[in-house]
Write a structure and sequence with these properties.
About 75% of the residues lie in helices and about 5% in strands. It has about 375 residues and is mainly α.
Amino acid sequence: MAQIYFGLLYKSDFRTMKKLILSAALILSVATFAQKDELKTLKKIYSKNTISEKDLQEYKTTSDALESLALEEADKVYAKFYKVMYPTVVLASKGEKATLQDQMKLYNPEFIKEYGAIINETIDFEKKSGKKIYSDELVQEKAEFKKGLSALAMNLNTASKFKESSALFYSLYTFDPKEEGKSLKNAAILAVQSEDYKLSQKLYEEYADSDYVNNDFTYYAISKVNGNEEEFNSRAERTKFISLGSHEKPRDVKNATKKHEILKILALLYYKNVEIEKAKTTYDIARKLAPDDEELKQGEFQIYYNSGFALLADEDKIVNEINASRADKAKYDELLKKRIDMFAKALPNFEKAYSIDPTDENTKTILKMSYDITGQPEKAKAIN
């Protein structure tokens, strides 16, 4: 390691250091004033009712510059805010001339996620700092954006465009994950309806692990009009309807109590996508959550029973080869062993199926046969 020499500093050295410190402070001061100017420019353009092409160019240039200048927390937050908001400023600049295609550009999944995140970050920062600049406007904008996105997703669902509707509901969830857990549920259900089972699996995995399922509630109240219990998107929405006098008898249900139903669907999707071991594990977890659920019981039974038979797919072929090889003892013995090994691999699946439903006659028959072929006659006799 190189030695560090601590020498004495002479007056000239102090003068040099002082100049360097003053220079650094001056640079910092200039940068601070510069970024304040950038913020003022962006705020002015952002707040305009009519935005010109020149405004757009200035907004973009200024936003790009501010990103590298921002040093303080507030400046960094607003630098991100103005950058993310650029597409909304572009749309606003078109005014009444904005087409449906122009509007649809704002429904890009990546933009929606980033848009939601920066809105929440800005609102949280202004709440923490105690200085409201955009909070009230953003809260309203957030609500209106969610309302528009939800309406579009519902319209696509009504038109049987399930995959497109699923994508928009998922975007609604990424826009506001704390409040839109139900939109993730809708996205997963609609993906199944679209018969895209790979996408369905991915969404149901995310849904099963979500905070909405594991820590949130579903809110119900009874309609005074028809006497039916109805589900609400949030506690606040339900409170509003109760205060209006249209509903009564509120009831909260912890979503985790229904997790076994989500896992039931996820297990079926794993099976559909030929991820058999994941399906088995998921059924096992679900049955521990709801041991008396008959559908879960039958689903788990079926997957083990079918898995066993899948491993015996070549059994008829091997039996025919065995019968044709009686004259060739070496080959005959080899094929016999191959058949025994095949049943040995299938056996744990039949045992599990039998443990789930010991009354099923087909399971008892194949289990007895498996025990006999693998040289376990006593176990075969014990099956009643």
